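Weekly puzzle thread! Below is a chain. First person to post its structure in token form gets bragging rights.
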Amino acid sequence: MAITIQSFVLGPVQTNAYLLTNEETKKAIIIDPGMNPASLIRKLDGLEIEAILLTHAHFDHIGGVDEIRKLKGCPVYLHDLEADWLTDPKRNGSLRWPELGVTISSDPAEYALDDRMTLNLIGTTFKVMHTPGHSPGSVSFLMDNHLFGGDVLFRQSVGRTDLPGGNADVLYDSIHEKLFTLDDGVIVYPGHGPRTTIGYERDNNPYV
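Winning reply:
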């Protein structure tokens, strides 16, 4: 079984969206469809989108949810601690930056995520890890040795904690107690910036 991973840099804050496709069945999932998702949507022709998975519900990670959900008829998965963020532009932060010229809201998620949940999608499994700190409902998705971590851990950096619901101590606990228990070779696909590995960040990240 061949799962391909494509990344797309979307919107004004350069958010990484990921399209994971089972090349045998042409079933796919999307992780964090951000704002201005046209380049991502062009790649969806001929694919059955089984789900949209959200690492968290800040505006820059959910800007494409409504358009893609309506286009492909796929459900959305989000942690319950941010259940009302999809519907509330104030809570998802899109009202904080009026220069973006858009407020983002959509219908609620169809499914709630929780720590240690296993999702069976596109012929493989995803382990859900609740990794709060950047936001209360931040989660990371582990597929084999691929970790989609949202805005928790970046290459030689970490997610900001100065937004509502952020907490630096909780973020560092998530990184040390959950992410850094993974093997060195696990590839980290972050919400912004280049990919990295758990081993590299354990040895080189100045913040942790």
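Puzzle host: Confirmed. Bonus trivia for everyone else. The radius of gyration is 16 Å.
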